[in-house]
Amino acid sequence: MLILAFAICALGVLQIFSATHDTAWAGAWWKQVIWVLAGFIALWFATLIDYHTLLAQVPLLYGLSVATLIGTYAFGMTAFHSRRWIGTTSFHLQVSEFVKLVIVLLVARYMTELKTEQLELPDLLKLVGLVGVPMALVMIQPDLGTALSYLPILAAGVFVAGLRWQYALAILVIVALVLPVSYFFVLKDFQKARLVSFLDANQDPKGSGYQVIQSKIAVGSGALWGRGVTKGTQTQGRFLPVPHKDFIFSAFAEEHGFVGVIVVLGLYFLLLMQIVQNAQTAPDRAGMYICMGIATVLLFHILVNVGMVVGRMPVTGIPLPLMSYGGSNILAEFLMLGLVNNVRLRRFVN
Amino acid sequence: MTIHPDREEQQLSPNRLLRDDDTKFASGKIAFFQYVMVGIFLFLVTGFWDLQIRNPEVYQERAERNSIKSIPVLAPRGKILDRDGRVIVDNHSSFSLFLSREDLRMEHLKPIAEGLNLDYDALVARVRRFQTRGAPQYEPIMIKDELTPGELAFVESHKDPDTFPELEVIRVQRRLYPRDGLAAHAIGYVGEVSESELNTAEFARFHQGDVIGKDGIERQYNDTLMGVDGQRRVEVDSFGNQRRLPEDEDKDKEAIPGKNLQLTIDLDLQAVAELAMENRKGAVVALDPRSGEILAMVSRPAFDPNLFASRIRSKDWKDLLDNPDHPLLNRAIQAQQAPGSTFKPIMALAGLETGVIDSSFSVHCGGGETFYGRYFHCHATHGQVELHRGIAQSCDVFFYNVGNRLGIDRIAEYAEMAGLGHKTGVDLPHEADGVVPSTKWKIRNFREKWYAGETISVSIGQGATTVTPIQLAAAIGGISVGGMWFQPHLVRDAHIAPARRGNVQPENVQKVIYGMYGVVNEGGTGGRARIPGINVCGKTGSAQLASNELLKGTKLGEIMKDNAWFVGFAPMEAPEIVVAALFEGGVHGQFAAPIVRDVLKAYFDKKVRLGEPRPQMASLPRLLAAPAPPAAPAAVNP
Known about the structure:
By secondary structure, chain A is mainly α. Chain A contains 14 helices and 3 strands. In chain A, a hairpin with a 4-residue loop joins strand 2 and strand 3. Chain B folds into 2 domains: 69-262, Alpha-Beta Complex (Penicillin-binding protein 2a (Domain 2)); 267-302 and 330-495 and 507-612, Beta-lactamase. In chain B, the strands form 7 sheets. In chain B, strands 2, 3, 4, 5 and 10 form a 5-stranded mixed beta sheet that branches. In chain B, strands 12-11-21-20-19 form a 5-stranded antiparallel beta sheet, sandwiched between helices. Chain B has a 3-stranded antiparallel beta sheet with strand order 1-8-9. Chains A and B meet through helix 3, helix 4, helix 5, helix 7 and helix 10 of A and helix 2, helix 3 and helix 4 of B.
């Protein structure tokens, strides 16, 4: 699992280098290497501390998370129209990334405590409320993508725990009703524009659809074998937006082609399979919920990010796990892998 | 902030609580999750399949369009040099503004037009024309040339991708013509190929926006001068910054500069001829009768070709077209005027060759004579006149009789032999034919038979006869070298037709030449062409604007003044230069003579200055060289 993760990280670092080598971000790949190393230390810590101990601290962690999110909203740094970061300009953390972990733990503990095989409505509503608070806080930053990424954790937990089909149906209906309403009342203009451009990217090729179109051009022009490292004109010519972050996979697809894409998606697939396998062999429900939550959140990220790259998902600011440049998400992701490892190492304890 | 405090109280050991295992119940759901995973990955892979495997070409092409810009590299036009290699037409650098159509947005046209003081409607129309023509996208639209520093600054500060990415400045070479219209008509001018021209066969191979020769040498030798535009491929990023990649260099197309063109024009002589014309309307053609090389070609009034070097303003263009003096007309090759008495040397030669007269033939000039019931005037009363005096004094009565004896068709035969009545073939576009009337000509053009009375007028170069200055220079030049006519040409190594050798007797030619010697040196009509030390021969002509249609065209009671002609050559012993001058409205040939004298003098002065005679063409038959002229010139010369 670690080997897979490091392979993906290495490709990520390579792509960050390629995408930024003659831009103002030229040093980013080196920073990423440091983040990955820091991530490895984080992973080691996350492995060391028994996850049960962590689960016991969920109330504290949850309280801390909510408090920090409120703090971020009130005092955080503003970048790209939203407040997501705390810290100074040279070192800052995106709190919402770490909140994911807390939510994973929260769901795991909650479900374990219920011990039932079928979720009752009050329990479900309580859990939704618990997840909903930090989610709402992230949403008002506004960071819709990250906020939405909390939902699959919840959904996976609920799904594994078991849900009456009537409830499932009711939830679907509610979601169907809420979506159009939220489009008009909750989403900000640029978020609406992204959605519209997802539905019809050619409507305004120089405006909001630009990113999707440029990404598709980048991917398509990569063809089977790609154009070679630092040879992708879309990436090098900076037609591709943030080619070292959210659109790192377009840049990768342009420079390494379909073959490269298959390799990386294969790595991700194997990584996820490992995590899921850990869920199956977990010593207890808590471990299983943790692994499933982590697998879901990673899968969700991959789906939304890669789907966006090929124009099959709307543009959201969701990074690609392990590849995208960024300290917070790398650290958070390694912490997740650490937790999975944690569960894995304790499978023979009892 | 705690979760389920009640349960936590019940089970104090969190470990016992959380280790409550039995994960079996979930295995089916986990398996289901795995299927979802596989589904999602397949969904993603098909996305890449669609883009990268099924139609990557589409995206590759779009990526290319995104990032590769082909910037035209305009080939500089060849320079035009005079016979001594001095530059007549040069190029200078200027900046032209293009609209790149790949980035063009119509709503930008308004602010661009405002920023550059362009006519918005004209600009839109121009862009639309490109679109309707279906020109390829990469073909940019030139919208302004000769950018001033201010305009250049506007463009530089607005051409970033966020403002007007379509703006593209290209450094171009512009034509720089001599000032004051020097040799303007011979050289012509360049201009952007027009849409109507693009639809003709001659111009079909050009592209919109190409600058091509429109007239004169520029047009005639456009292919030599033009060169081939190249292309420079640059990679641009989304900010419009350009980067050069090594592999782009291989795909560049070098611009092939146009070749320089050396003319036979002598700038010194040209300048003298221009000055000699002063403000007169008319034309001067000086050529070397031994080769047909044109040494000077002037047409006045002239125009400034520099007006055309950049896009000509419509007002300037209209002014040129509306000018009653037609400054765009190259009178040297296009003015078809009655030759008047300058036609007489040809008449004399025809008379001698056909034997209808000999040198002793004489008539009595009493100021006129009646032919076919009509009295024809002479401009003076010459008394008894034979050939030599007939030419020298330009006696009309003498030539009426010669013409009457020859008949129109024999006149026409010799006139055509001398090269009149059809184009000389000079390497310029739009040369006029002139008219040599004959019975055939009359039937063909008027469906009428020729009246013998008409021949009388033709005998003195009137009637329907018209010539262009270049025809006259070539015709008389051919006679001066003994009956050998070279095709006049302006370019040094032009492909010219072989010289036509006339079937004429040298002694007859000498008699005619001697008569023309008399015109200048023996108190004849062309005394103003005399140059001490050089035997100048010549012939005046004062031609009525006889053409009926022209007379009808006169308005406001303006008197149509006669045209003044003079054609002269020198030196008589071995002519090197022949000059024909047309002075429209000059009344009498003697007023055209000084123009010719100035040019001849400048020619010989220059030879003296250089201290060496111009090399003679070895192959040239020096028919005149063998016997000395009948009357020793020394007797007349000081």
